[in-house]
Amino acid sequence: MIRRPAARRLVAPLAVLVLTLAAASGAVAAQTGAAAPAAAGLPVSIVKLVLLFIFFVLLAVFGNWLAGDAVAFEKRKEMWYGLFVGGAVLALVLALLVPIFAVGILLALLVAAAPVAAYVPWRNRQVPVQAKVFTAEHVRRTITQVLRREKVGEIAAERAVHIGGAAHLTEDSQLLYMDASDMPIRLTPQTEQELAVFSRGEAILTDALARQAGQAYLVPHGPEILVRYRIVGDVREGGKLDKPLGEGVIAFYKRLARLDVGEHRKPQVGRFVVLLGDQTTNVTVQTAGSVKGEHLVAALHGRRLLNMHVEESGMRREQVDRLRGALGTSGGGVILMSAPKHHGRTVSMYAALRELDLFARNVIAVEQDLSIEVPDVNQVEVNKASGQTLATAVQDVLRGDPDVVMVETVSDADAARMMLTGAAVGKIMIGGLVANDASEAVETFMKLAGDRQNVATTLLAATGQRLMRTLCAACREAYRPNPEFLRKANLQAAQVDVLYRETKSRPVNKKGEPVVCPLCRNQGYVGRTVLYEVVALDDRARQELAAGRSVAEIRTMLRKQGQEFLQEEGLHKVVDGVTSVSELLRVLKSAS
Ligand SMILES: [Zn+2]
Question: Could you tell me if 417 and 451 are in contact, meaning their C-beta atoms sit under 8 angstroms apart?
Fold first, then answer.
């Protein structure tokens, strides 16, 4: 729950006001109590005062939560806040005016609780299942969270004690681990050697997280084990470990992922969760042996990413509307989503599903091998052991009469044809493809399905995308773009005064050392965004495509109608200062 300081500032004076009034009402109650002939006098009024005090503390707590919650949703904040304050004031009046104190306080409770009682179901209807409150699931989760916080605290304390002299580790080591079901994992080093291994394993994870790597690799290479990171599509070196240390680090990750540490050859897959500050990351560990030795891949998925909507991931409003239009088509059809490898396609596909009402529509995602677990989405894994193929898995899913089926990667002809079958019976079929852009995705899909005509008539939209680093807002450098560049890029000089790039000149301190940017640690970029093209086809485009026009011709036709593709969309991001020209060129160049 996001609570903003502004909401707190608003609530604190209200609480004080309410409490003061409560005290005053207590005093009045004491007076009336003393005036009543049957009353026992002062002791009773103290009880009343305490009761009133507790009542208004409760009110303030609820009010605080409500204000923070309403602000977090940015929806009808004033209305709910008004209702709540109105209820509180009315409650106060009732508590003061009703002659029988017990009845008064009961009525006051009811009146004050009514807005909260109305608010909770309203807000629960607007949020995904994991954000609902006062449900059985919420209560269970809150209890486990409290227990876990205690446990995590215990582990941290235990670790601090155990590590003792090795101060460097306590300083660097801010990582906490949980297993796939979010229960804390305790791993305490027993020897100096183990301490070195753990600390190195942690350093690699911390480094990978700081550099926003999508994957970390440990690859045997002669007498060493190389560390590599995949950062926004590119593989970067992350240092070397001597073999015993490297193998120790591999074993460390295997223990975290609950894999068989003694098994070095057979492929294994496991998961764990790592917490760093307020960042929670799901880590999928894959190990397998080769002639060179055991290697490991750790895929990192930020939890925030898994709950993301396409707009948060970088899709422009207009593009979201276009995608929504395609998803909302009645009578079914095919939507293709594509990206080169390692450009975040799977996460974008799940984010696209979030544009649907996941609770009202029956949405099922089919994956060859479940790569990530996504909240609120029904995910089906192809059951290869029982002879199921991707196509037969999709066929089985279609028998259950879903509204929308997502096929994470359409990898073969049978699966492509099953997509068309689904579309023919009125389903929205979303298919993922490895391709450089939307046009290439359409071509690939047509080839796979071997049925150009049918693809042309059912195709609703196609998307392409790139993962792109975003400039560090603290140290990016403004510059006046070259008019020639603007002309070539079709940007009118009058509209674009400055563009931004990563700074070329780092400031230096008195000693002449470069000052390190606190935000990006002189990387020049912080975080990443997705550059999308979302191409929706209208009836005319479908007819032209069915009539035998090439995808390139359709592309030209759509461009004339104002459709923008990756390059133009990327230039928007450059003009907005989100990224640099060099980063745009880098990601556009990368091929699948
Ligand atoms: Zn910076």
Answer: yes
Cα 586 to middle of ligand 1, angstroms: 20
- pLDDT of the residue at 303: 78
Task: Spell 64-73 as b/e; 16+ CB within 10 A means b.
Answer: bbbbbbbbbb
CATH topology classification for 173-303: Beta-Lactamase (3.30.450)
Q: How far is the CA of 173 from the centre of ligand 1 (A)?
A: 24
What spacing in Å lies between the alpha carbon of 188 and ligand 1's midpoint?
Answer: 36
CA of 524 to the centre of ligand 1 (A): 5
CA-CA distance, 366 to 383, in Å (whole number)?
11
Distance CA 6, CA 580 (A): 34
> How many angstroms separate the alpha carbon of residue 475 from the centre of ligand 1?
4
Q: What is the pLDDT of residue 587?
A: 92
State the distance from the centre of ligand 1 to the C-alpha of 257, rounded, in angstroms. 34
Domain ranges within the chain, ordered by starting residue:
5-126, 173-303, 307-467+530-568
From the CA of 212, how far away is ligand 1's center (Å)? 15
C-alpha atoms less than 13 angstroms from C-alpha of 219 in its C-beta half-sphere: 13
Residue 433: pLDDT band with limits 50, 70, 90: very high
Ligand 1 midpoint to CA 207 (Å): 17
Query: Hey, what long-range contacts does 301-306 have (CB within 8 A, 24 or more apart)?
Result: 301/347, 301/372, 304/279, 304/280, 305/347, 306/282, 306/347, 306/350, 306/372, 306/373, 306/374, 306/375
Across residues 67-86, what is the average pLDDT? 71
Backbone phi, then psi, for 72, in 5-degree steps? -60, -35
Are the folds of 173-303 and 307-467+530-568 the same?
no
Question: Which CATH number does 307-467+530-568 carry?
Answer: 3.40.50.300
Whole-number CA gyration radius for the chain: 30
The number of CA neighbours under 13 Å toward the Cβ of 553 is: 11
User: Does 444 or 5 have the greater pLDDT score?
Assistant: 444
**Entry pTM:** 0.61
- pLDDT at position 261 over 60: yes
Per-residue pLDDT, 364: 95
Distance (angstroms) between ligand 1 centre and the Cα of 505 equals 12
Distance 427 CA to ligand 1 centre (A): 47
pLDDT tens digits for 160-218? 333 332 323 333 446 788 887 777 887 778 888 888 898 899 889 988 988 888 899 99
What is the distance in A from the centroid of ligand 1 to the CA of 473? 7
Alpha-helical (H) ranges within 164-286 are 167-172, 192-210, 243-256
Given pLDDT bands bounded at 50, 70 and 90, which one contains residue 137? low
Q: How far is the CA of 510 from the centre of ligand 1 (A)?
A: 20
